[in-house]
Write a structure and sequence with these properties.
Radius of gyration: 18 Å
CATH superfamily: Vaccinia Virus protein VP39
Helix content: 25-40%
Shape: globular
Low-confidence stretches: 1-7
Largest sheet: 7 strands, mixed
Strand content: 15-25%
CATH class: Alpha Beta
Distance between the termini: 33 Å
Mean pLDDT: 94
CATH architecture: 3-Layer(aba) Sandwich
Number of strands: 7
Order of helices and strands: HHEHEHEEHEHHEHHHE
Amino acid sequence: MNDPKGNETLDHSSREEFYEYYKDQSISPSALERLNNIHATLNRELGARSREKLDIVDIGCGAGTLCTIWARDGHRVHGIDVNEPLINLARERAEKDGLEIDYRVGTATQLPWPDSSMDVCMVPELLEHVEEWEACLDEFSRVLRPNGLLYLTTNNTLCPVQQEFDLPLYSWYPGFVKRYCEKLAKTTRPQLAGYATYPAVNWFTFNMLRKEFDKRGMVSKDRFDLIDPGSKGGPARLVLAVIRSNPLTRFLAYLFTPYTVILGRKRQS
């Protein structure tokens, strides 16, 4: 498959170390807890619509764990990933579970679905890996129906803790140092980026993405807006109230959160 931005052919293969890691990690207790939390958050935001049969897409779906969770609810579920071995694994798991899930090998810069075809678009930990990230956002918005939800997680350049590179304080490295590290990860030292074929090349903040979402007709919420206070104990509810109380405390909280969460709701036409 060719990248729509140029003539470069995308690499759909996977390093064995990367595949073996995600094969196990994708069904680990920590992964299941995280993905079930995403599922619960989106169901809260959908409200009564969550009981309808919706079109759900996971972009960068990997081995398909999040797709499986939604398919078990009876929704029409779609998944796409550039990594063909992981898509094959996702298909095998869906067949074993007796689930019909539309899995595709492809790129987030050119989605294979028509305009306004999805009710929920989930993009966990993908945007940082695609150089043409703005084209990705264009595509996510294109396939989303009015009042549809776009849930996206990515890195957070404000926080020094990150999981993209096995280097201390990497989020705060200057751009030219990051470019050098990216080159090493793609050539002689793939272990720096966990043997990823496409290591992280972009770094984001919530406010940066909020502006991009707004350009594409979406109203945004951040991770703190999405937390259900009723699920927290008294001290945690107090901390959450303080964080939400003004922009300064919210900004300070971002410094201690190693990844960005943003939910966009597409405005009605």
